[in-house]
Design a protein that fits this description.
This protein is an alpha/beta fold. The protein has 19 helices and 13 strands. It folds into two domains: 317 residues, ABC transporter transmembrane region fold; 223 residues, 3-Layer(aba) Sandwich (Rossmann fold), CATH 3.40.50.300. The chain is elongated, with a radius of gyration of 35 Å.
């Protein structure tokens, strides 16, 4: 089984990786190639013996019974070379199937566990794309090039050289020297091609995106209305042409080098054949051996001039690839180990969270300072804030005040900060990150639209799911396309922890309870009527993926995203401007509905529009990375500070838009 490890990967991993994925198939492919190599070597001897026997029988009427044996052996070798490829394909197909699944699974696991700041880094994205795309796509080539080079080409060359050396030792040295410059040229060419592909990858990613813009369904309306097809097509062509020229230049240099080397080697091979003529006349070589060796040398020249040098170039390319794989494997992952930390009020005690998430009592930022990796500017500066269970909070502020950064720290996407973030008095960096993630159920401004059924869209929030898309059609769903996980205590219930405290995390909710919860949530959010009007109800597929799929309005998609969040049993519900596309009245109405549903739970609204913030119990006003004001809507308005000024400004906008009515 292939496991991606943090270690130095080398060209030897061209064989190690396939072997770890499918050892039996890899060994069988190797054996098939080895038999082919031996057949090529011994064919030189067998053909020579057969030709010498035939000439002797014709010229001297001296028939040797071994002639039949040489003929049969020659026939077997020729037949094997014809069928060996198809035999190898059987083993290769199995290896590719097993290998691609394992490699892609490992790469997906690695990418999912990367630290969040790496996912925002363009250089890391480029590295990840190079590693994932090339190995998963070229896994078969990885094995074939390695085995061809070391199991067929090298043994075949050595075998023919040994046969030549057994008759004329200096001739073998001449042939061997011919291969050296071609190997060096191939190594340099392979490195250039790989690095050219690395340079071209940036332009390839751009032209693929622009192609989606020109042809995708998502942009159909604007593409038609704005008529930007010509301009975007020109941009696509420039990006495509740049990538093409980079790749073609590298390939052209490589091809010219290879063809030039092949021509030189062919000339030398002809010279070697001429040298063998007087050796044959003197009796040093038999006529059969001369003919067989001449053919073998020309085959060898072709092998060294193109086949072998191409394999060397591929090995050089994958040697460069292995450097990228080493860098990818070394990327830091989220740490899952729980560090020991003394719990409040306990002398040297250790409070770890391994069986579930305790019910929220307090969530506190204590003198937190944070700057993004690689920058010198503090986004949050000596930031302090305390949240308590069951309170509705709103966090407001101008653009750049630190709201988005605050969310990333709250949810554990960034963990490198100064100060403390405490959950019930325990530093959150002591939590495994997966456990940290389960504290929050979030709806973001750019929430995901899953092209799945309504039921799957909503119940994704209940926990891990398994669902299938192949072969399913509307009206034929079983309603059991996934395994559900939730709590047994009903909507947002909490069970008792092992230490007597309330904990979230008793998952395993039966399907009937899950369905009841789902319908209750959609009813409370005003979605049930819209879902009931769909042809297949909750089994209707959403989006634009299938012909029978149904796309929702922006407001309906937002309610689906909120329903998904409410299906989660996290202690804290977090809404990061998910209604920014709605008008202020609709936004306030939806927030009000959401507040009623989540009553008794801790909620955090992030918003730059203040019409809905007065629904909150407590408001934090951020400015320049700090909490400048806090309190209820009434208290902040009475204070006449930053919040009051912002609210009055926005209210005046509404008055103008509504013709004098706030």
């Amino acid at each position: 089984m292939f496991v991606l490890k943090k270690r130095r990967y080398t060209w030897l991993d061209m064989y190690r990786i396939p072997f770890s994925c499918a050892p039996v198939s890899t060994v069988l492919v190797t054996v098939q190639k080895a038999i082919t190599a031996l057949a090529n070597i011994f064919q030189v001897i067998v053909v020579a013996k057969f030709l010498d026997g035939t000439i002797d029988a014709v010229m001297h009427k001296n028939y040797d019974e071994k002639l039949i044996l040489w003929f049969v052996l020659m026939l077997l070798m020729v037949s094997w070379k014809r069928v060996s490829y198809n035999i190898g394909r059987l083993f290769t197909s199995h290896f590719v199937t097993m290998g691609n699944r394992q490699v892609l699974q490992e790469f997906t696991r690695k990418r999912n566990r990367l630290e969040y700041y790496l996912l925002e880094d363009p250089a890391t994205e480029e590295l990840t794309n190079r590693v994932v795309n090339k190995l998963e796509r070229n896994l078969e080539e990885l094995l074939q090039r390695f085995v061809n080079f070391f199991v067929i080409y090298i043994p075949r060359i050595i075998g023919v050289l040994l046969i030549i050396a057994s008759h004329v030792w200096w001739l073998a040295i001449v042939v061997m020297v011919m291969a050296v410059p071609l190997v060096l040229i191939s190594l340099r060419g392979g490195q250039k091609i790989y690095r050219a592909g690395e340079e071209a990858a940036v332009y390839e990613r751009r032209h693929r995106y622009l192609f989606d813009v020109l042809t995708g369904r998502e942009s159909t309306e604007e593409r038609s209305l704005f008529g930007y097809g010509g301009a975007v097509n020109g941009q696509w062509h420039r990006q495509y042409d740049t990538a093409r020229k980079i790749n073609m230049k590298a390939e052209a240099i490589f091809t010219l080098n290879m063809q030039g080397g092949s021509i030189i080697t062919s000339i030398l091979a002809s010279a070697v054949s001429l040298i063998m003529i007087p050796l044959t006349a003197s009796g040093a070589l038999s006529v059969g051996l001369f003919i067989s060796l001449s053919t073998a040398i020309y085959d060898l020249v072709n092998l060294m001039g193109w086949g072998m040098t191409k394999a060397v170039a591929q090995i050089a390319r994958y040697r460069e690839y292995m450097k990228d794989l080493t860098a990818f494997a070394a990327l830091p992952e989220r740490q899952e180990a729980v560090k020991e930390n003394g719990a409040p009020g306990e002398s040297g005690g250790v409070k770890t969270l391994q069986t579930g998430i305790p019910k929220l009592q307090t969530l506190e930022f204590r003198h937190v300072t944070f700057r993004y990796p690689g920058t010198e500017v503090d986004i949050l500066k000596d930031f302090s804030m305390e949240l308590r269970d069951g309170v509705h909070y709103a966090i407001v502020g101008e653009n750049g005040a630190g709201k988005s950064t605050l969310i990333k720290l709250l949810t554990g996407l960034y963990r490198e900060y100064e100060g403390e973030i405490l959950y019930n008095g325990v530093e959150m960096r002591t939590f495994p990150q997966e456990q940290w993630f389960r504290i929050y159920s979030c709806v973001f401004q750019d929430f995901a639209k899953y092209y799945l059924s309504v039921k799957e869209n909503i119940c994704l929030g209940a926990g891990d799911m398994e669902f299938g898309m192949e072969g399913e059609s509307h009206g034929q769903g079983t309603g059991k396309g996934f395994q559900e996980h939730g709590t047994t205590e009903g909507f947002h219930g909490h069970g008792d922890g092992a230490d007597g405290s309330s904990e979230v995390g008793a998952r395993e909710l039966p399907e009937d309870n899950l369905e009841t919860r789902m319908k209750e949530v959609t009813r409370q959010l005003g979605l049930q009527e819209a879902i009931s009007s769909l042809k297949y109800g909750y089994e209707t597929r959403l989006g634009k993926l299938d012909e029978d799929s149904v796309d929702l309005s922006g407001g309906q998609w937002q309610r689906v995203a909120m329903a998904r969040a409410l299906m989660n049993d996290a202690p804290v519900l977090l809404l990061d401007e998910p209604t920014a596309a709605l008008d202020p009245i609709s936004e306030s109405a939806l927030y009000e509905k959401f507040g009623e549903i989540s009553k008794g739970h801790t909620t955090i609204f992030i918003s730059h529009r203040l019409g809905s913030t007065k629904l909150s119990n407590h408001i934090f006003v951020l400015k320049d990375g700090c909490v400048r004001e806090q309190g209820s809507h009434e208290e902040l308005m009475a204070a006449g500070g930053i919040y009051a000024a912002m609210y009055e400004t926005q209210q005046s906008w509404y008055v103008k838009e509504e013709g004098g009515e706030a």
